[in-house]
Design goal:
Distance between the termini: 41 Å
Strand content: over 45%
Radius of gyration: 17 Å
Structural class: mainly beta
Shape: globular
């Protein structure tokens, strides 16, 4: 397996993968995720010519609390509204329900629908999949790949039989959480 790198306008090939954070066990993912993140994404049509649609920049705040049902830690993901600390848009509520040396199984709610995900420690990837449970007309697959202590790459593939399918790519960067 080889990797391409662009360095100061020159392309080079290496057998070594890009450096990433190495966690001692999957449970560390909860600690890593907590805090405020700036998410910058580019949206395109998913198919055909992959036509560009728009860009977006939002702040996502991830906090935790202990659940009342069994003492499991719950990670709450919300989109923060600029300058309005009390107004947030919920994204996920996630629990690490199964952890071993190589991965963690994640149970989470997305728009009221129970879902499952996994964190795989080898590639440092958090994989989430949402399926429209009522009509089975939409599937969303999200991959968060940890690149370093403060950066994640994000890929979202959304397939919908009733509307446009989208592909979103971008990054999330940890920011100072005191403002959110």
């Amino acid at each position: 397996l080889q990797f391409l790198y662009f360095i100061e306008g020159n392309m080079s090939v290496s057998d070594a993968p890009p450096s990433t954070v190495v966690f001692s066990k999957p449970l560390d993912i909860a600690q890593y995720l907590k805090g405020a993140w700036k998410r910058c994404m580019e949206e395109k049509d998913f198919g055909g010519t992959f036509q560009f649609r728009r860009t977006s920049n939002v702040v996502i705040v991830i906090s935790s609390e202990v659940a009342s049902d069994g003492g499991v830690e719950v990670l709450r993901w919300v989109v923060a509204q600029s300058g309005k600390k009390d107004e947030v848009i919920p994204m996920y509520e996630m629990k690490l329900v199964g952890v071993d040396d190589k991965e963690a199984t994640i149970s989470y709610d997305y728009q009221g629908i129970p879902c499952q995900g996994r964190f795989i420690s080898g590639p440092n990837a958090l994989l989430l999949t949402h399926i429209d449970n009522t009509e089975r007309t939409a599937v969303v697959s999200i991959t968060y790949r940890i690149l370093d202590d403060n950066t994640m790459a994000v890929v979202v593939a959304e397939c919908d039989s009733k509307g446009p399918s989208r592909l979103l790519t971008g990054t999330m960067h940890k920011i100072e959480s005191a403002d959110y």
